[in-house]
Design a protein that fits this description.
Layout: E1 2-10, H1 16-34, H2 56-60, H3 68-79, E2 87-96, E3 116-121, E4 128-130, E5 144-148, H4 159-167, H5 177-188, H6 190-194, H7 219-222, H8 253-266, E6 272-273
Parallel strand pairs: 1-2, 1-3, 3-5
Antiparallel strand pairs: 1-6, 4-5
């Protein structure tokens, strides 16, 4: 089990009591999803769809392709996958910063590098942002993610899971595969070729059907499942795509391997194995 100490910094006008409450909520969300206990898609009320059993026959209604059974099995397996990463988060501190930041880089040097920092800000145009792990190789910057306060209001809280995925070395499921491979080769060296991390040449992660574009959707609501050029359903339940929170349920085993690899490689001073 990897133990991740977290400090949540608020660069917004907020009362201490509320800040602590949000800090705890963030840790709960992280631990639920990284431990494989994410809220089941079965329990979630997507738009006007309550008490629906997402079995194969239900799913087939959404598929126009003649290969219905095969595709519905893929979809069914995605929505039934949860994953335990063996990464656990602990809230050590919540801090209310007096400054408001628009250029967040300028504040980096003030952060204690005994923690992974989650910075809550509101004057930004994105949901979340972070560095990839190799930025921390010389300990020049503090490991951190940036989260818009806005995500708590518009049901995009799983952005926190997604950004942690980036921080631990994961790309998007829709990123340019060749570029990703080049970068992994660079930072994994021989491990890239020898390890269990990436087993196929044509995907970022061998166990994710690659997406051609990002989607921002809930396929059940839109009545549309994207297929890639191999006629596979893209994994719309993966934390590393842009789909709606209500359908996001897991990292794949290959993604978990990659995260552990980079935690071991770049975060040894912060994240301890218990
Ligand atoms: Zn992202």
């Amino acid at each position: 089990m990897y133990n991740v100490p977290i400090c949540v910094n608020f660069y917004i006008d907020i009362k201490k009591k509320k800040a602590i409450k949000i800090g705890k909520k963030i840790i709960n969300i992280l631990n639920e999803n990284f431990s494989g206990n994410s809220e089941s898609i079965y329990k979630i009320n997507t738009t006007n769809k309550q008490n629906i059993s997402y079995d194969q026959s239900y799913i087939e209604k959404f598929i126009t392709n003649e290969n219905k059974t095969e595709l519905s099995k893929q979809i069914y397996s995605y929505i039934n996958t949860n994953s335990n990463t063996n990464i656990k988060f602990n809230l050590i501190k919540t801090k209310i910063k007096k400054t408001k930041i628009s250029k967040f880089e300028s504040n980096v040097e003030n952060l204690n590098n005994k923690y992974i920092h989650i910075n809550i800000i509101n004057d930004i145009k994105f949901n979340g942002l972070t560095y990839m792990p190799w930025f921390f190789q010389n300990n020049q910057i503090t490991p951190q993610i940036f989260i818009s306060y806005y995500i708590f209001k518009k049901n995009k809280i799983k952005t926190i899971i997604h950004e942690m995925g980036h921080l631990f070395g994961l790309f998007h499921t829709f990123d340019n595969i060749d570029n990703c491979h080049q970068i992994y080769k660079l930072y994994m060296g021989d491990d890239f070729y020898n390890g269990e991390y990436l087993k196929s040449n044509d995907r970022i992660y061998y166990d994710i059907p690659s997406q051609t574009t990002c989607m921002y959707l809930n396929p059940f609501d839109l009545n549309y499942f994207q297929l890639n050029d191999k006629n596979e359903v893209t994994n719309f339940c993966n934390y590393m795509c842009y789909n709606e929170d209500c359908v996001l349920t897991h990292f794949t085993q290959c993604q978990i391997n990659i995260m552990i690899y980079f935690i071991e490689k770049y975060f040894k001073d912060v994240i301890f194995k218990m």
